[in-house]
Structure formats: structure tokens, C-alpha cells
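Open question from group meeting: does this chain pack into something compact, or does most of it stay loose? Before anyone orders reagents, we agreed to write out a predicted structure and look at it together. Recording both the input and the output here so the notebook holds the full record.
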Amino acid sequence: MTLGLADRPISPDDNQALAAALRVPGAPVVVGVATAKEGLTLDQQAFQDRYLAEIPNGSAAITIDAVDGVARRRPADGLAAALARLSKKPPPIPGEPIAWRGPPNADPPTFRVYTAEKLAVMHSV
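C-alpha cells returned:
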């Protein structure tokens, strides 16, 4: 499960339900977090830190190329690193290029490819 930001209280019931869901034993949960660098206030950061104490998390921010605005590299503290830690796998190398596409003639391909004709069948499954 991947969850977005929890930066402020919503309602007591909703807060309690989400907190309980995040802490279900054995549930693989990683939460994307932000910091002041992404625009959180000190109060939002403090709430997020308290609310998500002991919950695996990683930065939801991505590194954008200053020249053309394209995300090309993995951040060291990002969700990929948090997911690797949770699954006890080696973390990605900080600054490693993101494999948006596999190399030519990759076997197997990096991403599954489905033709438009299969969309109706896939939707019904």
C-alpha cells in the first residue's frame, strides 16, 4: 500500500481509523512524506512526524532536472528506498537514473505492453 501525505488532522474518527489501518500487523505500508522543502509548515511537519511515528516512510518528492524539468534520478530518501527497506532488499543507489524505458530489445521488457484491443478484456477481470 502506498499512501499520500498526512500533514494535518481531519476528524477524530477518520484520524483514528487511518492510524489503525497504518498499524495493522503484517500490513506492508509505506507512506510518502514531505518537508518544509516541499512547502510544509512547521505545524504540518510536526503533525506528520507524530502521526506517522514508526510507520515506514520515504520522501514523496522527486528530483527534477533544473534544465528541462524531467525527473531522471531517484532521490536517496524517496519511496523506492523506503520500499526496499521494508522488503529487505538493497536500496537503489542515490542518484541512480530512473529506468523509464528498458534498453532496446530488452528481454523481458521493463514494462508489460498491452494493445488497445485487450483493454475491454482487462477491464472486466
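Observations to bring back to the group:
The chain has a mean pLDDT of 78.
Strands lie at 2-3, 30-33, 57-59, 63-64, 71-73.
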